[in-house]
């Protein structure tokens, strides 16, 4: 069994981290390590993780010396990862018990390098409030128009492309990473089964559309170095897709 390294940044998520870790422990696929990087939390999240570490040594904890943001935290976890496959799971999201097993089978059966799955949306109480369908495949130009890859569902194969790190930006660093990978491989492939639950909180970028739009533009202009015409073109697609998704679906 190949190992999967699960990348989890932690910052003041004590309210949800137990449920997140439990979802990993309950995976039907058991050869994993969960690398949690704490970014100077001020709640008792670290104490919770340290307690769970004593019960399961597959859980690893790294502590940032200064508050550095999720991109740095995720990159530290990627750097420490020992697994062939890198998967991502934020500290307030949840995986379906067969998520790793189904996604790994999907990747290995089809020799895919980079994959993602459908997922449900839940509120802070854990109640389902939505569902996200996904395309069966996504190329670089497709992703520029709208990001259909949920961070909590993404997985890539380091044996095929090595370790790929997130650009150091405050928000939308996951979107920027997917674009980076799609300049190495031609496509990401979607498994259209809801194998994860994305929690909407008051701090979620997706819950603040203006903030999300600001960082979407930054990715176009400062990370991808697109000219103003191309950036505007893709930003219009992104905006229209957001309006359609909110009001017409």
TrEMBL record:
Residue spans crossing the bilayer: none
Gene3D superfamilies registered for this protein in UniProt: Spore Coat Polysaccharide Biosynthesis Protein SpsA, Chain A
Glycosyltransferase 2-like domain location: 5-133
UniProt keyword terms in alphabetical order: Transferase
UniProt-recorded Gene Ontology molecular function terms: hexosyltransferase activity
CDD domains attached to this UniProt entry: Glyco_tranf_GTA_type
Pfam families: Glycos_transf_2
InterPro entries per UniProt: Glyco_trans_2-like, Nucleotide-diphossugar_trans
Keyword ATP-binding found: no
UniProt name for this protein: Glycosyltransferase involved in cell wall bisynthesis
Organism expressing this protein natively: Belliella buryatensis
């Amino acid at each position: 069994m190949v190992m999967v390294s699960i990348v989890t940044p932690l910052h003041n998520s004590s309210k949800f981290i137990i449920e997140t870790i439990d979802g990993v422990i309950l995976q039907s696929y058991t050869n994993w390590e969960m690398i949690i990087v704490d970014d100077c939390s001020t709640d008792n999240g670290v104490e919770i993780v340290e307690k769970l570490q004593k019960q399961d040594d597959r859980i690893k904890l790294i502590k940032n010396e200064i508050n550095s943001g999720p991109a740095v935290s995720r990159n530290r976890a990627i750097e420490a990862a020992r697994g062939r496959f890198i998967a991502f799971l934020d500290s307030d999201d949840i995986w379906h018990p067969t998520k790793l097993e189904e996604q790994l089978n999907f990747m290995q059966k089809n020799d895919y390098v980079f994959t993602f799955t459908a997922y449900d949306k839940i509120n802070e109480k854990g109640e389902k409030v939505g569902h996200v369908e996904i395309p069966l495949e996504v190329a670089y130009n497709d992703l520029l128009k709208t990001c259909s890859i949920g961070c909590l569902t993404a997985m890539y194969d380091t044996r095929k492309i090595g370790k790929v790190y997130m650009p150091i930006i405050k928000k939308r660093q996951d979107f920027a990473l997917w674009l980076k990978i799609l300049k190495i491989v031609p496509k990401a492939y979607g498994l259209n089964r809801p194998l994860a639950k994305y929690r909407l909180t008051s701090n979620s970028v997706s819950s603040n559309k203006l903030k999300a739009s600001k960082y979407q533009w930054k990715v176009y202009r400062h990370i991808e170095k697109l000219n103003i015409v191309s950036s505007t073109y893709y930003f219009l697609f992104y905006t229209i897709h957001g309006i359609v998704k909110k009001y017409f679906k």
